[in-house]
Amino acid sequence: MRKIVYVSGTRADFGLMRSTLQRIESATSLSLSVVATGMHLVPSYGDTWHEIEAAGLRLAARVPVEISPATGATMTRAIGQMTTAFADVFESEAPDIVLVLGDRGEMLAAAIAAIHLNIPVAHIHGGERSGTVDESVRHAITKLSHIHFAATDQARERLIALGERPDCVHVSGAPGLDGLDVTPRRARNEVFADLGFDTERPVALLLFHPVLQEAAEAANKTRAVLDGLIQARWQAVVLMPNADAGSGQIRAVYENDVSSDFRKYVHLPRADFIEIMAAADAMVGNSSSGIIEAASFGTPVLNLGSRQNLRERNANVIDLPEDTARIADALTGLAGRPRPAPCNVYGDGHAGERIVAQLEAQRLDAELLNKVLIY
């Protein structure tokens, strides 16, 4: 049986991967364990490692790291701490493949540890562009990886242009779309009445994360976003940001805001998050979920600032700077406008099936590990 270890550092990546991980675990030729680290293990972020066990998945290890103060230096030190700890876990687990997703430091640390133990790395969501430090980290993980699961055809082409073997680059689609069409959801008014909103007024889902290079501006940008919502007289479900540099400033703005139109949450279970996304009159912020998942519901998205720069867009996305007046104008213009039809360039909701098939079929030999750039 082929052993797979998945590394998870946040509520977000686990939520995206949950159905795929459960599919891996149920495959007769594969076994799965999960390493939890980062925000998963911090009470102020919801102690979300419990959701891994609640999903019926084996937790191989918990790797705690310092995430405060939320600065670039803290993020750098955490990568070093995780690299050392992951080496110990991988030695003990002896997986055949280490599976990682996206562009966070946890995944970079896992890839560094795995290649030095001669363990192939499978990477999901490589080949995408987003600007900021995330793009550099994502491409670094690509160069440390051996098997690639791209979300789109363009991403696959970019991975091959980066020198990856075409036969090791597979278009799976985005795992976060799996199951969206079958997840039980209530009607909009029922969802928002339960949250105490006036259902006659529009409601946004707000996810606004810090950008490392813009950490010093995080508070001012956040205030501009909230003021835009207030000026447009929109209500909002506000989800606290991740732990990257600048997150403390964002949280402080949220905590000091006393508007009765906002409902603030440290964490929402995946099913609740998806239900609110589908019901919302718009998403506002800079989360990849607005770029990727929201299109499957036709939810309009105001994508703010540079964090998702150059990602492939669906028809539901409007790009804006973090400017109060422009946000307010855009929200006012959305009120009462028909939603775009659900249509998503990031896949068809069957990524997990394709990922499992390739994890089962991929030949793991010296040629795979001794990778060279193909030009």
TrEMBL record:
GO terms for biological process: UDP-N-acetylglucosamine metabolic process. It is an enzyme of class 3 (hydrolase). Gene3D superfamilies: Glycogen Phosphorylase B (3.40.50.2000). Its EC number is 3.2.1.183. InterPro entries: UDP-GlcNAc_Epase, UDP_GlcNAc_Epimerase_2_dom, WecB-like. It comes from the Bacteria. Keywords: Glycosidase, Hydrolase. Residues 23-359 form the UDP-N-acetylglucosamine 2-epimerase domain. One of its GO terms (molecular function) is hydrolase activity, hydrolyzing O-glycosyl compounds. It holds the Pfam family Epimerase_2. NCBIfam families: NeuC_NnaA. This is UDP-N-acetylglucosamine 2-epimerase (Hydrolyzing).
